[in-house]
Amino acid sequence: MRRLVGVELTRLRWRRAVQVLVAFALFVPILVFAITAWNTRSYSDAEMAEFQTQVDRDTNSIETQQSLKDCLDNPDDFGVPPGEDVQTTCEEWTLPQLDWYAFREPLNLDTERDAGSGVVVIALLAVLFALAGTTFAGHDWNTGSMSNQLLFEPRRGRVWLTKGLVVTLASGAIAAVVLAAYWTGLWVLAGARSLDPSGHSVWEGYQQGIRGTALAALCALCAYAVTMLFRSTVVTLGVLFGLSILAPILLALIAFPDNERWMPQTNIAAVMLDGTTYYGEMVCTSTTDELGNEIQECGDSTEHKLTLAGGSAYLLGLLALAAVPSVLTFRRRDVP
Amino acid sequence: MTDLVIETQGLRKEFRSRRGVRVAVQDLDLAVPAGGVHGFLGPNGSGKTTTIRMLLGLATATSGSMRLFGEPVPQRLPSVIDRVGAVVENPKFSPHFTGRQNLTLLARTIGPSGGVDAAVDQVVETVGLSGRDQDRYKAYSLGMKQRLAIAATLLKSPELLILDEPTNGLDPAGIREIRDTIRQLGESGVTVLLSSHILAEVQQVCTSATIIGNGRMLASGRVDDLIGISTSYRVAVPDPATARSVLTGAGFTLTGTDDELLVDTDRPAAVTEALGAAGIWLSELTPLRADLETVFLELTAGDQLGGAA
């Protein structure tokens, strides 16, 4: 088994398409990091001075002063609440403020983790390693070299498992390195900017990295399993497209009860973010007024929490749906 | 029993599709003895490749049993696969890898005792690919691909070599080289099963052969014996017309012209006896040995077109 793992690892390493995908997996996060660093950089003194000049210029403009006068003359038209200090409120609302111009947010590790570049990098790795998994298996089928391999190792279950193991481990290892480097980079960047992130934020980032590693490895294994089942990269891409795009649309269209729970992206979010919130159906009640007309009143959508365990169980279920028929079919099918 | 390297009994393979069931191999009893080169002869689509694929575990049999080296397959295939080298249909390797990379991956799967690099070097040299082994497989000519496929089979130092149409697409020089290689392997003690529809190839190289058509076995045995099946004799006598009458009366089947009598029989002594009893003395009794093509065409009449796959 160890010998076969070595062979499959070499086969994976030598595949040019896989090499390109791994290069992307290394390069694109660097690009995302650079963009994040650029977009969250602090303003220089010269920039702040420039903004202040703009504020002063715009404050003294005829249009701004006219707006301020209108507000002071007719505060009700501007929606100034009764009892508020009209002068202060109108100045606040009509006169330009410095943060209208200096709108860039500083680096925040919690934001990057929950809705920022951390999520983007994981999604990117998941897609790239899914492509690596499918091209690795698809190549063996497309070229017919699978039959040649089976002439040297006819134990098909072992062949399936070894290839799957190699795809999973390689994807997981690269994802782990990339995500660890990414969060270390953000941590170092925050420190360099004297933002002094809390130890909790950093640890949460690494934890997300661990979950992202598992997710990327699972996507690679799932794509591999589907390709071994259908013996076609194109079909696999179609299935993944259907699962990620068409399935949510279909679930939404048929108004499946609690359908948000069963959408892939909700469960992926639960894994990436250590739980997520989704919204269920609105609760509506019907009443009849004194004239006999039916009146329907709907409240807010019900809010549900989907845990990491719930999301993981869903994704593992999808994996089982792909892997079990894949391995069973491969053990019995005629190999061209 | 153990003298047979390959043995099948009642082997059957059906392909099911929307258009119905197609029988590719039916009730095939194949017996290949150890040593020598055994031809596996049949028209295109007669079931040769399907049979080989079943033997190698690449296709499942619908019914029947198979044995390699006395071991039931596919159940015990892993225990005997290291003794079997095979090229099934066209060579199939990763096109973006070099010839050497392809061989290295396969060699590492079995872990040859002398080391992977040494084993690859040796087979590359054996098949004459030295100097081209670092080229990508997709840049190889068909002949080079065939050689690489044979090199892959030799990585195992096989006791049984199964070659399915190994000279397909080769130029005359390549065909000759491959045939010489096959002959040498057979003489060195390796059992070779040579699947082919090229009759001359089988006749030149093989010591024994099995002929199949429409998935059924039509004949099997030593090539000399198979050719002997349809041996006829040319009979020369002073009075052919009388001789024809005598032999017909004795129950022989005659062909040929009035001047040249051809008697289909496997009992030449009976011909001399019948003519001698009638006072007709032979001036010539020459066996006309059929070549394998004649036997093949007689046995597979009607199979060439539209036979089962």
UniProtKB/TrEMBL annotation, chain A:
Assigned keywords, A-Z: Membrane, Transmembrane, Transmembrane helix
Bilayer-spanning residue ranges: 20-38, 115-138, 159-190, 210-230, 237-256, 311-330
Protein's UniProt name: ABC transporter permease
Automatic annotation (TrEMBL), chain B:
Pfam families per the UniProt record, alphabetical: ABC_tran
Keywords carried by this UniProt record: ATP-binding, Nucleotide-binding, Transport
Gene Ontology molecular function: any one: ATP binding
Residue span, ABC transporter domain: 6-239
Top-level taxon in the UniProt lineage: Bacteria
Family designation: Belongs to the ABC transporter superfamily.
Protein name: ABC transporter ATP-binding protein
